[in-house]
Amino acid sequence: MQDKVALITGSATGLGKRAALELAKEGIDIVLNYVHSAEKAWETSRFISETYGVRSIAIQADISLYEDVQNLIRLTLSEMGRIDILIHNAGPYIKERKNMSDYTMDEWHLMINGNLNSVFYLSKLVLPFMRQNQWGRMITIGFDRAETAPGWKYRSAYAAAKSGVVSLTKTLALEEAENGITVNMVCPGDIPDGYKEMNIGDVRGQNNRSNPIGRTGTGEDIARVIHFLCKEDSDFITGSVISVTGGKNVLNNNSSKKTI
Predict the structure, then answer these.
(1) Does the pLDDT value for residue 159 go beyond 80?
(2) CA distance 44 to 199
């Protein structure tokens, strides 16, 4: 995996950052993307280079805007020369619970552009370079049971966008298989913000009765799956939607009472 370059959107903090660290351990050069968190993004970039000895840069871009995505890809290719792995991690989310009829047009467009159209923008621009190399890995991010297109009360726009990404993920997997490109989706469970950059060892021994496995999920849980899907010998896995939830049903009958 050395000499490979991974572009990870929304990677200054959280799950995107944890995925970046996991891939950097493998010798993969890392391009971090951020919108507002410039200081944190460059801090992470420096840590990656100093700790793992790989190249790393950070680039500002709002992936919901096609012009920003064009600039992101241009700068990545200018600085790194190639893009082998694309992790579609960034995606806006409105925490306030509201019915579909209460969403404003701006809020609806933010959810669709940031979570669905952004995958189209990035994939369209990156695919030609992956095809040229006859190798590529794309990972999209969903939510628990996204592949069934479930109703999610108070999350209509987000759920609709991510369900659309499921279909797009599977379609791209079929279209690009002959080009040595795999496309899969990883669906995190309920991982609180404070745990998104944690290691599994940090939560061993904790007693979380709300999760069947008995502990809270961490960023490492998600990053390990992303890492596995990016490996050379994982080429037989494509078009898959993989849930990483510890067995917890996020969209249960009490979902309307939850904060996420």
Answers:
(1) yes
(2) 16
